[in-house]
Structure formats: structure tokens, C-alpha cells
Write a structure and sequence with these properties.
Elements: H1 10-61, E1 87-89, E2 94-97, E3 113-116, E4 125-126, E5 132-136, E6 140-144, E7 151-160, E8 163-169, E9 175-178, E10 187-195, E11 200-203, E12 207-209, E13 217-223, E14 231-239, E15 245-250, E16 253-256, E17 261-269, E18 275-282, E19 287-293
Parallel strand pairs: 4-11
Antiparallel strand pairs: 1-2, 2-3, 5-6, 6-9, 7-8, 7-10, 10-11, 10-12, 13-14, 14-17, 15-16, 15-18, 18-19
């Protein structure tokens, strides 16, 4: 073999192979990095979906998720992107993948992919006082209540003869005027809400209001024939075109009433002033008064 026909030496071949292997290893590492990152991203997305299913299941059952298995509404093959099985850990509220190494870390670390779901909390009970009401002519009820923050839904529930009706309100609403209500009929109202975390908020108090068109009428006359000397006998007639009557006050005596009309005789000691104050109130809170001169 001449000098011009000399081939590669063993050293040159070895060096060439080392360089080639180094290039191949760099290429494989460069390719595996993004591919591994892509699998981690896919694993996190799927784990988040499973955690969301578990959180929704908690809201549906109103109880903490305690099963160490995938939720019933999960329809995948149960395997992570590396072919391992998902682990559901109720104690730490976590969906866990062992990751590329296939080995679960003792504390959920190492190469594990971990996504946790929210802990279950019983719906908050908001202490809402009964809404204050004022009644206007024509059977309208105006309701007011304290402002609440952090809500994504607010509903006023009215219960009357037609059943329950849900009235959607703006989340920042603090008042509502309800109209076209039947007279002499009881209506109950309660507030319900949902906060931004999806928890139900239910007002613990219920306001009951009875619309009236106008204050009750009141007529008082003095009658003869008191049963004892020194007493006076009064004939009281009251009626309401709206709410039912609730109470009658004659002097210092208080008498409960029911219904829309009332006629009653009341005897009481003749006052030194020679005058008796009489008042009647309906269940809507409207009041009428009269002063009667009975003599001394």
C-alpha cells in the first residue's frame, strides 16, 4: 500500500466514533427534553380534569371524596402519559402520576405530577336578617337587606298562593320592589346566593309580609249600658281592604284580632282625662288611630 492509499488509523476511527456517539447523545437529549416536557404538560392537564371531576362530585354529593379510585364520571383508560396508573389520594386530596420514572415519591415529590382538589366545606350559612319591608298602595312590597360581597349569584325566593317563585337579582342588589300582589294574602321571602367559590349561601331568616292597599278603617262610638258604675262602654268597628287585622289597642288594653273586619264592644274604667285613645294595626304594619271623648 502506497502513502497516497493509506487508510484511517485505529486511533482516527476511534476518535470518529466517539465524536459521532457524542453528537447522537446530544441529539437524543435535545429531543427527549421537549418530549418529556410535553408529557408532563399533558399529565398536568389530565390530572386537573380528574381533580375537577372530583370537586364537582363533592358539590353533587355534599360530602368529601373519600374513594381511593377514579371518579365514576371519568371515562379514560386510567393511565398517565407514561403508561402508569393514576393514584387518587383522598388524605392529601391529590391526583398523582408517578411521572417518567414510574416510581411514586414518598411525599409526592421527585418526578411525580401532583394536582390537588379543593377540600369540601359545608355551605356557609349567612345570617341575613329578615328583609325590612314597606308597603305601598296597590299591593306592592319593598324589601331591603344588608349588602353582601363575593357573590356570583343572588336570588330572592317568594312563596305565596301560586307556590315558590325565584327572582334573579344583581349580585350587588340590596333592595327589591315586588308588585301586583293579592290583598289579604301572606307572602314569604328568603334570600339565596352562591359565592365565587361555588358554595351555597342561604339566608337563615325569612320575612313574611302581607300587602295592604291602605291603612285599616276605624270607627269608635260610645254606648250606654256599662256593666259597672265608673266604666264606659265603647263600640269599635275596624276593617281592612288589604292585609288582615292584627291588633286593637283601647286605652291601655291590647286585644288580638284576626280577619279583615272586626266589631267588638270594650268596657274600661272611665279615664280622668275624659278621653280614650284607640288604635288598630294590620299585618302589613299599617295603623289607624282615633281619640274618643267619653266625659269624666
Amino acid at each position: 500500500m502506497t502513502g497516497s492509499e493509506r487508510g484511517f488509523s485505529v486511533v482516527e476511527l476511534v476518535l470518529s466514533m466517539v465524536v459521532l456517539l457524542l453528537l447522537v447523545s446530544i441529539t437524543i437529549a435535545w429531543y427527549q427534553g421537549p418530549a418529556q416536557d410535553a408529557r408532563v404538560s399533558v399529565a398536568r392537564v389530565e390530572a386537573s380534569q380528574i381533580a375537577g371531576m372530583i370537586a364537582a362530585r363533592q358539590l353533587q354529593t355534599r360530602a368529601a371524596y373519600s374513594a381511593p379510585s377514579l371518579p365514576s364520571n371519568y371515562h379514560g383508560n386510567g393511565l398517565d402519559p407514561w403508561g402508569g396508573r393514576w393514584r387518587i389520594d383522598p388524605s392529601s386530596r391529590a391526583v398523582v402520576s408517578a411521572g417518567p420514572d414510574g416510581v411514586f415519591g414518598s411525599d409526592g415529590s421527585a418526578d411525580d405530577v401532583v394536582v390537588r382538589w379543593d377540600s369540601w366545606q359545608q355551605p356557609s350559612q349567612v345570617e341575613l336578617p329578615a328583609p325590612a319591608a314597606s308597603v305601598a298602595a296597590g299591593g306592592f312590597v319593598r324589601l331591603e337587606w344588608p349588602a353582601a360581597t363575593g357573590l356570583r349569584e343572588l336570588v330572592l325566593v317568594r312563596t305565596g298562593p301560586e307556590g315558590a317563585r325565584r327572582i334573579a337579582l344583581a349580585t350587588g342588589a340590596v333592595e327589591y320592589s315586588d308588585g301586583a300582589l293579592a290583598p289579604r294574602v301572606s307572602y314569604a321571602y328568603r334570600l339565596e346566593a352562591e359565592d365565587i367559590a361555588g358554595r351555597s349561601l342561604i339566608g337563615s331568616a325569612t320575612g313574611v309580609f302581607i300587602p295592604g292597599a291602605s291603612p285599616p278603617t276605624l270607627r269608635v262610638t260610645v254606648e250606654p249600658g256599662a256593666s259597672r258604675p265608673g266604666q264606659v262602654r265603647l263600640r269599635v268597628t275596624a276593617s281592612s281592604l288589604g292585609a288582615e287585622l292584627a291588633g286593637l289597642t283601647v286605652g291601655t288594653r291590647e286585644l288580638p284580632l284576626r280577619g279583615a273586619d272586626c266589631t267588638t264592644a270594650v268596657e274600661l274604667d272611665r279615664p280622668a282625662s275624659g278621653r280614650v285613645n284607640v288604635a288598630v294595626t294590620d299585618r302589613a304594619g299599617l295603623r289607624s288611630t282615633a281619640e274618643v271623648t267619653v266625659g269624666r
